[in-house]
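dumping the sequnces here before i forget
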Amino acid sequence: MPSLHYEYQVSGDDFTRAGEASSDIKNKLKQMGVSPSAVRKAAIAIYEGEINMVIHAGGGAISVEILPDQIAMELIDHGPGIADIGLAMQEGYSTAPDAVRSLGFGAGMGLPNMKKYSDEMTITSRVGEGTTVSMVVRFE
Amino acid sequence: MNLEDICKLLQATLLTKNNNLKKVVHSAFSSDMMSDVLAYAKDDSILITGLCNPQVMRTAEMMDLAGVIFIRGKKPDTTMLHLAEDIGLCVMVTELPMFNTCGKLFCAGLNGGVSLDA
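..and the predicted 3d for all of it:
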């Protein structure tokens, strides 16, 4: 299987459409015959990232590269950035407003979950400039 | 316990078409926080929730859940139901409140679907 590359633009002003990119990525992995557990891990990790983009950053771009043995996902936004990544990685820490919680998110589980379900994750962020999250999920 | 048993037990109304009602469900997870569902729910379990927005269907899709039960008569709109049908998700609504819904399912043998592993 050759390397496959996909790009998605995530709108920041339509919460109802959040998850469309993740759904498409999940379906592509399923069609390629990737194991269900690896598909599930990648889907959850990218969906959490996509939701974060919509909630915190006004949208962004997702870039995905699928190789025979892994999927590499990069999420780039130009939102407010993360001042303290260590703090943001703690379960339960959230800067989401109450309006976001009433939608079922903002419990401070997004980034910890992305780390839990991916095999590698790195975050680079500058306050006022944006955040880039890179994740890899390996296929068993 | 399969989806049909659950629907009867909760006197629920089935909202999606083409469901596989014989699909067996071993566990359930109840929450209005999708963040918690994404962190802890097991695959092939059923979600019980009072939250009613499209991200409930998306969360169930990503988690490979067998179905969603909306409590207290909360009815998803047609856009949400079309999404559920596209995903292949069984959706039902019961008039029961959260506690009674969980209690009935627990007494009938369903256990909490909490996974602490990835």
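The helical segments of chain B are 3-9, 34-40, 54-62, 78-87, 98-107.
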